[in-house]
C-alpha cells in the first residue's frame, strides 16, 4: 500500500512539471481567495476596510512562506532550488562578461584537448578488441632454432596449423589466414582490393556473424569447392552500392569466378596485414576488404619446416593458462621438427591479440592522455585563481547574505551552480572543438597507429567529456567558495579591516596557485618534448591521409 502511494505521489509530482505554470496560477488564486474571505469576515465584524485587510494579512501569515510550503506538496523541492540557483548564477555571470569569457574559454580549451585525446584512447585502446572474450585470443607464431640461435617468425606453416588443430587440447579453436591482394571485376569496372584467405573457423572463433548471408563452411577449406568471398561492409557499400541481394552473385577475382556468400557487419574490425605479419612492405598496410575461403591445396596440408605463408589465431579454453597452451604447442612443434631434420628445431610463441593489434602505440597514447590531463589540471588551477579573485570582491556580498539568515550550504550551493554554468558552457564549446580536433588528429596521425578509422566522438567520449566538465567546473567553484565561507561574518563586514586581511590572504593564495601552475607547466613541457622526440624517432614524419 505504501509503495503504491509513493508511486502515485511520484507520478503526480512528475506530471506537475508539465503543468507548472497553470498550477502556480491556481495556487495564487486560491491563496488570494482565502485572504479575501478572511478580510470580508473582519469587515462584517465592523472593522474599517484598511484595518480588516491588515488584520487578515496578520492572521493569514507570510503568504510567500505559505505559498512555498503548499507548492512543495506537488513539486520537487531540490529541482526548484537548482533552477533558482542556476538562474541566479546566469545573472551573476552576465554581470561579469569579461570573467565569463575568459573562464569559459580556459575551461573549453582543457575539456576540448582531453576529449580529443580520449577519443583516440577510446577508439584505439578501449575498443581495440571488438570480439567475443578477447582476452583468450592469441596470435600463434613459429620459431626456428639452430644451436643457440632462435628466430621467431610471424608466419606459420599451414600444415602445422592443421596438426595443432588435431592434437592440441588447450585450444577451443585455431584459425589461419593468408594475404590475398587481387583485382575484382564488377560489371564493366574493376578495382584492386586487399583481403585474406581465411579458414572457416575464423569467424566463429572471433564471435562474428555476417549481417547478410553466411560465413564459410569447413568443407570450403578444401580445394575443389570453388571460390567463395565474404565482403566487408565498406567494400559492399563502395563497390556494390550496398545491394541487399548481393548474396549468390558471382564476381571475377583475378579472372576466376567467385561467389559472394555474405557481408560482414559494419562494426567488424580485423587487423591490417602489416599487423598480422612483420613486414615493411608498404602495400601490406591496407585494411582488409574481403575474405576468401581457404581452399587449401595438398601441398599446403603437409606439416614441416618452411613454407611459412600463413598467420594463425588461437582461442584458448576458458581457465587454461597461457603457459599450458604454449607448452602443448611446443610439444607438437618438437615432434614435427624431429620428423623433418635434426639440424633445426621448431618452437611456438603465443602473442596476445591485443598486443599484436595495438603494439607499442599503447604506451605513447597513454602518455598523450597523461599530457592532456596535465593541461586540464593547469586549466583548473588557473580557473581556481580567477574564481578566488572574483570571490574576494564578493566576500562582502556573501557576508551580508549570511548575516540576513542564508545558510552556508545555500551559499555554497549557489557557487556550485556557477560552476555548473561554466562547465556547461565550457564543455559545449570544448566538445565542438574536439570534433575538429579529432579530424585533425586522424588526418595527420602516424600511419602505424591501428584502428584510426574507429576514432570518433561517440557516446562514451561524450560521457567522459561531461564528467570532466562537471568535475572541473565544481572543483573550480566549490573550493574557492569553501575558502570564502570560512571567513568570519563580522570580520568581512568591517570593510577596512576586511580589505587588508582579504588582500593578504588573496595574495598568498594567488602566489601558491601561480607556483603550482608554473610547476605543472614545466612538467607538461618536459613530457611533451620527450613524447615528441619519441614519436619522431619511432614513427617518423606524419603522413597526410
Structural class: alpha+beta
Report the order of strands and helices: HHHHHHEEEHEEHEEHEEHEEHEHHHHHHH
User: How many helices does DSSP assign?
Assistant: 18
Shape: elongated
Percent range for helical residues?
A: 55-70%
Strand order of the largest sheet: 4-5-10-7-9-8
Radius of gyration: 35 Å
What is the number of independent domains? Answer: 3
Major sheet characteristics = 6 strands, mixed, barrel
Strand content: 15-25%
Question: Which spans have pLDDT < 50 for at least 5 consecutive residues?
Answer: 279-284, 496-502, 538-545
Number of strands: 12
What is the mean predicted local confidence, pLDDT?
Answer: 77
Q: Ends: how far apart?
A: 65 Å
Question: Can you give a write-up of this model?
Answer:
This protein folds into 3 domains: 2-74, no CATH class; 87-128 and 360-538, no CATH class; 134-317, no CATH class. Helix 6 crosses helix 15 and helix 13 packs antiparallel against helix 18. A 6-stranded mixed beta barrel has the order 4-5-10-7-9-8. Strand 4 and strand 5 (189-198) form a beta hairpin. It is of the alpha+beta class. The chain contains 18 helices and 12 strands.
